[in-house]
């Protein structure tokens, strides 16, 4: 049992240990003024790791220390770099061009009769522009537990990925189709302003697309860890971004806990009852994601939405329809009234949920230590379930 658990968490996700060491290094260098440059230390540790090639465990430990020092070096370098040193003129011009294109698309929405709160929701969901969101609208989405659909993330890019997949010959030219989809995804990332959560999702989808060409395990903790390593090497300060933290914790919780929830029903039962499978799938993803981000939401926003599960049954299908219709309306403006009607229905439904007594628990102000302890409790609960599954005969259903 112990070996099986270890294999699942560590042996099948070696990059998880690496990214944890890098994160620890970044945190140390962020809060502690290091007395010496970490670059010579990092180089020395790399040399030591290479010299220990005959000693497996010692070399493994030295590799982890390499990434610990790398995190410290990256954060130390970040502190010494000028504010404008990470962007070049060409990138600035590209971002300006895409922002101009986004403004043109936003104008097309407003010119076609989509205005008020409906325009604010469409602009936020489809193009990442949250400037039109009013305080009341933000509060309604927050209380009801639907704020995540207003911030572009993996949900939105996943929908766009599926949409492009429908129109490209993936079976006939899988490699070419994946490359085209990836290019479209990254064009969209530039179009919506390259927020941290969108970049994370794009990197994940890029890894997913490339691995799918070779029919490998596409969505895994290892892929998530690789995404974190790439992003933190590019900008270690992203570690302290709220969107980065919530995005990664949500995906990590989904990867860990969805398989546990799915094992509640046998694979045969779910195959015979397709509607139960779809409903249970939405429940498992929603509960897992909420488990991953709830401590962070309480810490940063002081709130916990009690009806998040009911809300997700409404907003996730609605977000899919709104995203698809937004693209359709840009091509066929005469269909804008359908998009307007659906967004108005969504806003009304969320208003009703937010008005239910006890829709949210406010005034939560956990400390950093309390948040860490909650996550430790969640991890321990996961490990405990993994350990007792063979004892109680809880077999994997996949």
Write a structural description.
It is built from 17 helices and two strands. By secondary structure, it is mostly helical. It has a two-stranded antiparallel sheet with strand order 1-2. Helix 8 packs across helix 15 (308-331) and helix 12 packs antiparallel against helix 14 (274-301). The longest helix has 28 residues, at 274-301. It is globular, with a radius of gyration of 23 Å. The two termini are 18 Å apart. Mean pLDDT is 86; it is low at 1-7.
Strand content: under 5%
**Fraction of residues in helices?**
over 70%
Counted by DSSP, the helix tally is 17
Q: On the 0-100 scale, what is the average pLDDT?
A: 86
DSSP strand tally: 2
Provide the spatial order of strands within the biggest beta sheet: 1-2
What distance separates the N and C termini?
18 Å
For the biggest sheet, the summary is: 2 strands, antiparallel
Principal-axes geometry comes out as globular
Stretches where pLDDT is under 50 for at least 5 consecutive residues are 1-7
What value does the Rg take, in angstroms? 23 Å
Structural class: mainly alpha
């Amino acid at each position: 049992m112990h070996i099986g658990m270890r294999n699942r968490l560590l042996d099948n996700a070696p990059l998880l240990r690496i990214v944890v060491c890098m994160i620890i290094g970044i945190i140390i260098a962020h809060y502690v003024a290091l007395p010496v440059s970490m670059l010579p230390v990092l180089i020395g540790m790399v040399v030591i790791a290479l010299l220990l090639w005959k000693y497996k465990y010692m070399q493994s430990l030295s590799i982890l220390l390499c990434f610990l020092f790398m995190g410290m070096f990256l954060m130390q370098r970040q502190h010494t770099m000028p504010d404008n040193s990470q962007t070049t003129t060409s990138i600035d011009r590209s971002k300006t061009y895409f922002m101009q294109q986004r403004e043109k698309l936003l104008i097309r929405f407003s010119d076609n009769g989509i205005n008020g709160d409906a325009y604010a929701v469409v602009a936020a969901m489809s193009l990442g522009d949250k400037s039109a969101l009013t305080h009341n609208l933000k509060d309604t989405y927050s209380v009801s537990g639907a704020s995540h659909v207003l911030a572009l993330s993996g949900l939105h890019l996943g929908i766009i990925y599926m949409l492009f997949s429908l129109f490209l010959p993936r079976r006939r030219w899988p490699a070419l189709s994946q490359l085209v989809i990836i290019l479209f995804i990254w064009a969209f990332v530039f179009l919506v302003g390259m927020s941290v959560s969108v970049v994370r999702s794009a990197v994940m989808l890029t890894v997913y697309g490339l691995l799918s060409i070779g029919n490998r395990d596409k969505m895994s903790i290892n892929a998530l860890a690789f995404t974190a390593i790439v992003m933190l090497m590019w900008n270690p300060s992203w570690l302290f971004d709220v969107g980065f933290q919530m995005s990664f914790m949500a995906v990590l919780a989904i990867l860990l806990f969805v398989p546990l929830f799915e094992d509640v029903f046998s694979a045969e039962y779910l195959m015979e009852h397709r509607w139960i499978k779809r409903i249970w799938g939405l429940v498992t993803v929603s509960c897992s994601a909420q488990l991953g981000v709830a401590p962070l939401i309480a810490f940063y926003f002081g709130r916990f939405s009690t009806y998040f599960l009911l809300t997700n049954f409404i907003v996730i299908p609605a977000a899919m329809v709104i995203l698809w219709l937004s693209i359709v309306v840009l091509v066929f403006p005469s269909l804008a009234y359908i998009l307007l009607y659906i967004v108005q229905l969504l806003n009304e439904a969320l208003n009703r949920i937010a008005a239910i007594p006890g829709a949210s628990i406010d005034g939560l102000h956990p400390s950093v230590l309390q948040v860490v302890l909650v996550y430790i409790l969640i991890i321990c609960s996961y490990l405990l379930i993994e350990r007792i599954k063979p004892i109680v005969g809880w077999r994997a259903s996949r």
